[in-house]
Amino acid sequence: MPQLPRVLVVEDEAKSAATLRLYLEKSGFEARVARDGAEGLSIARSWSPDLLLLDIMLPEVDGLSICRALRAESDVPILLLSARTTEEDRLRGLRLGADDYVTKPFSPREVVARVRAILRRTKAPEEREDEILRSLSLEITMSNREARVRGRVVDLPPAEFSLLVALARSPGRVFSREELVERAFGPGYDGLDRTIDAHVMRLRRKIEQEGHPALLVTVFGVGYKLADSNT
Amino acid sequence: MPQLPRVLVVEDEAKSAATLRLYLEKSGFEARVARDGAEGLSIARSWSPDLLLLDIMLPEVDGLSICRALRAESDVPILLLSARTTEEDRLRGLRLGADDYVTKPFSPREVVARVRAILRRTKAPEEREDEILRSLSLEITMSNREARVRGRVVDLPPAEFSLLVALARSPGRVFSREELVERAFGPGYDGLDRTIDAHVMRLRRKIEQEGHPALLVTVFGVGYKLADSNT
DNA sequence: ACTGGCCGTCACAAAACCGTCATCCGCCCC
DNA sequence: GGGGCGGATGACGGTTTTGTGACGGCCAGT
After folding, report:
1. CA distance A116 to B64
2. Which residues make beta-bridge pairs with A176?
3. How many cross-chain Cβ pairs, A to B, lie less than 8 Å apart?
4. Phi, psi of A103 (to 5 degrees)
5. Measuring CA to CA, which residue among A214, A206, A198, A161 is closest to residue A183?
6. How far is the CA of B159 from the C1' of C16 (A)?
7. What is the rounded average pLDDT for all residues in chain A?
């Protein structure tokens, strides 16, 4: 390894920043901290880090603005940190070009894990964060928050949309109800896993054609999956 | 699953502790409770749990001290419980190496959900390579829970799928019924080994072509095996 | 305050699955 | 070829998992 990968932490809260830096350094990264947006931008430009850890809530210059600004001039991967948790916000961040999104409270370990994941992913040019998910006759446009089945646009309430997205991120893969709860509604969500059943039912009414589920399939004893290519 | 994941609850308040334990056990964990920090440490050392649920407010030995102490000697994931809610405390906990943080009052269900999330995260550090088992005309995709024979997807109920996977993990090797029970349904499973016969029969109907078993072969007086390379 | 949409849970019915038993069949060895 | 043991099979009842309609709470727009 020629040199350690560089991570720039843009975070105004001193304690958070210190913790992240500590963990990053312990995990084999070179880390620097910027206290505010302006400083962040300037360090980012001069130090050329391999990744940015960017708090959205910043004094003066908003985190998203920085995200946008940097995107205009470089390809640095960006991992957003935020207290907010809605799919809405997540989307806004990702749409601005962020590579991933972690909601507070986060565990430093998890953040480090994600940093690693992003770096791995960007080194080997794989598929970028895609804006459009497809699987068979299903097509989801994230930026429009629009789902289309067999060309027909179906209007979905938030929960159902999130659930569908969670499934569509890995078509064919089987998810347990718990996994779905976590992926669709976030960790720490308090609700029975049977709730998923209800949403599945409502979803089916909107996306399935005949009485027989062809897209959103039940896997007995395990959970649900989205049909991919085979029978 | 060789055995249930172990969770150690360190909590002085009897009611909380009992509730957590109840929920954990109902959710498929083995749970033990320690009433104070000292006991917590000693059980943690001797019982080697897979995760610690640690109340911060403890008599005598403070929860954070335990956290620190354990971190020095092991990697057990730790989930903190606390009445306090300040960012200050939260950070202090996470900085000390905790993996997540739940503030009281908490819903037991949420706690269990987080426990699961942490365990999943620590077990499978990253999106694991999609496991695919092959043997002759048989192909099993674990993530999709899909078995294909001669290109044709066969739909298998949980028990049959598990059995097939157990066999497919070592094609050609002969397993006794007991071994199969253990590998497919886990140890501690209560059932006759003749049950395997039933599943084998049902499996054969789905994966064999003619009346003569070619894939799932009987080894008289011993058990069953999956054909590997010959006829 | 009212209406409508959305959500989480519940209760009940339906469906799928499982384990066991009794019986019949086939393999192995004498 | 026959005896004996292990395996195959079909049936059945009980259990578990899902599907679904209903209900009450909640929130936002009117």
Report:
1. 28
2. A223
3. 74
4. -100, 145
5. A161
6. 12
7. 82
Shortest distance between the Cα of A12 and any Cα of chain B, in A, equals: 14
Structure tokens at A86: 């809605």
pLDDT in tens, B184-228: 998 888 888 999 999 999 999 999 987 677 899 999 999 999 998
Residue type, B122: T
The C-alpha atoms of residue B131 and residue B127 are separated, in whole angstroms, by: 11
Ramachandran category for residue A136: left, alpha or beta (phi over 0 → left; psi -120 to 50 → alpha): left
Spatial distance between the Cα atoms of A107 and B102, rounded to a whole number of angstroms: 12
**Which nucleotide is nearest to B219 if distance is taken from CA to C1'?**
D7
| Residue B105, preceding peptide bond in cis (omega within 30° of 0) | yes
Q: What tokens does B35 get?
A: 């009433």
Q: List the structure tokens of B133.
A: 């088992």
Q: What is the pLDDT of residues A100-149, one digit of tens each?
A: 777 766 777 778 888 887 887 766 544 444 468 888 889 998 878 899 99
3-state secondary structure of B6: strand
Q: Which amino acid is at A122?
A: T
Give strand C nucleotides closer than 7 A to any protein Cβ.
Answer: 5-11, 16-22, 27-28
Cα separation values, B99 from A103, B39, B85, B174, B230, Å: 14, 21, 16, 43, 51
Per the prediction, chain B carries an average pLDDT of: 84
pLDDT in tens, B42-86: 899 888 899 999 888 887 777 778 888 887 778 788 888 887 665
